């Protein structure tokens, strides 16, 4: 097996159906994630039809839409893998947990060594700490959320707050000094997330925690971590598309 970039401990497969809302399904995004696995070489734990497992590496992507992974050193287990209905592969990439299924893998020889080949997966589950991948927002193109609040006097207020990071499960904002009271447990049912790729996205937020942070200029502000309440699969997919686009732009900027 080629020398990997890092070690990992075997992990049990996730419940793919329960986590379907966190699946990346865009073919271009899937290819990009798989290319990162090939380039960065983290170890994958491959489960044979959901049972026994072995450790492998993603070796290559082919022009005709296939992924090649390293064979299991144990010939008996490798034979089982080559006749399996599917291999469920689990790994971590830059602290993000990934899982995908390779259907009907076939035994081949790649670069003179035994390997397994399968068509590209239809989806990749992508999770981080607490099942959400959190991404800092762009300072050059600030992301905001407009919270509609009706206080006791009945006068409708619209308050714009700056989003400092976002995930499929929630976001963190800088608390405005006066307009709103952010306390753990407070819910705001009329919020509008202003993503740059389309119309405002209606969301419901629940405040989970508050932290005091110090900005670069020395000013101390409150940061509120908020959870999305009742977010639809469609809304989750749109947020994930925004996050992937932002991450891709940052990676391209870093490379140049």
Describe the structure.
This protein has 256 residues and is an alpha+beta fold. It has two domains: 20-127, Pnp Oxidase, Chain A (Roll), CATH 2.30.110; 135-255, Thrombin, subunit H. The protein has helices spanning 27-40, 75-82, 233-255; strands at residues 23-24, 44-48, 53-56, 58-61, 66-70, 86-93, 96-103, 106-110, 113-119, 124-127, 135-136, 143-149, 157-166, 170-174, 187-194, 201-214, 220-228. The strands form three sheets. The chain has a six-stranded antiparallel β-sheet with strand order 1-10-7-6-2-3. The protein has a six-stranded antiparallel β-barrel with strand order 12-13-14-17-16-15. A hairpin with a 6-residue loop joins strand 15 and strand 16 (201-214). The longest helix has 23 residues, at 233-255. The radius of gyration is 22 Å and the shape is elongated. The two termini are 32 Å apart. The relative contact order is 0.12. Mean pLDDT is 85; it is low at 1-10.
Quick overview:
With 256 residues, this protein is α+β, with helices and mostly antiparallel strands. Helix content is 18%, strand content 42%.
Radius of gyration: 22 Å
Uncertain spans, ≥5 residues at pLDDT below 50? 1-10
The ordered H/E elements are EHEEEEHEEEEEEEEEEEEH
CATH superfamily caption of the largest domain? predicted glycosyltransferase like domains
Q: Major beta sheet, specifics?
A: 6 strands, antiparallel
CATH class of the largest domain: Mainly Beta
Shape: elongated
Q: What is the number of helices?
A: 3
Structural class: alpha+beta
Number of strands: 17
Strand content: 35-45%
**Average pLDDT taken over every residue:** 85
Architecture of the largest domain, CATH level 2?
Answer: Beta Barrel
Number of domains: 2
What is the CATH third-level topology name of the largest domain? Thrombin, subunit H
- Strand sequence of the main sheet, in spatial order? 1-10-7-6-2-3
């Amino acid at each position: 097996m080629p020398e990997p970039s890092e070690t990992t401990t075997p992990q049990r497969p996730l419940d793919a159906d329960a986590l379907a809302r966190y699946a990346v399904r865009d073919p271009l995004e899937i290819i990009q994630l798989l290319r990162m696995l090939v380039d960065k070489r983290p170890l994958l734990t491959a489960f044979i039809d959901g049972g026994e497992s072995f450790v492998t590496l993603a070796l290559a992507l082919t022009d005709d839409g296939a992924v090649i992974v390293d064979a299991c050193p144990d010939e008996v287990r490798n034979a089982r893998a080559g006749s399996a209905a599917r291999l469920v592969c689990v790994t971590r990439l830059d602290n993000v947990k990934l899982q995908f299924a390779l259907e009907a893998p076939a035994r081949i020889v790649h670069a003179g060594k035994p390997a397994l080949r399968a068509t590209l997966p239809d989806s990749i589950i992508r999770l981080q700490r607490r099942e959400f991948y959190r991404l800092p927002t762009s300072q050059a193109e600030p992301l905001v959320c407009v919270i509609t609040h009706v206080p006791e006097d009945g006068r409708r207020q619209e308050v714009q707050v700056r989003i400092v990071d976002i995930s499929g499960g929630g976001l963190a904002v800088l608390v405005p000094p006066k307009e709103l009271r952010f306390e753990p447990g407070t819910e705001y049912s009329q919020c509008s997330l202003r993503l740059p790729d389309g119309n405002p996205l209606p969301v419901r937020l629940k405040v989970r925690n508050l932290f005091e942070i110090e900005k670069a200029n020395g000013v101390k502000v409150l940061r509120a971590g908020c959870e999305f309440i009742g977010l639809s699969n469609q809304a989750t997919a749109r947020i994930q598309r925004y996050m992937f686009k932002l991450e891709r732009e940052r990676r391209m900027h870093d490379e140049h």
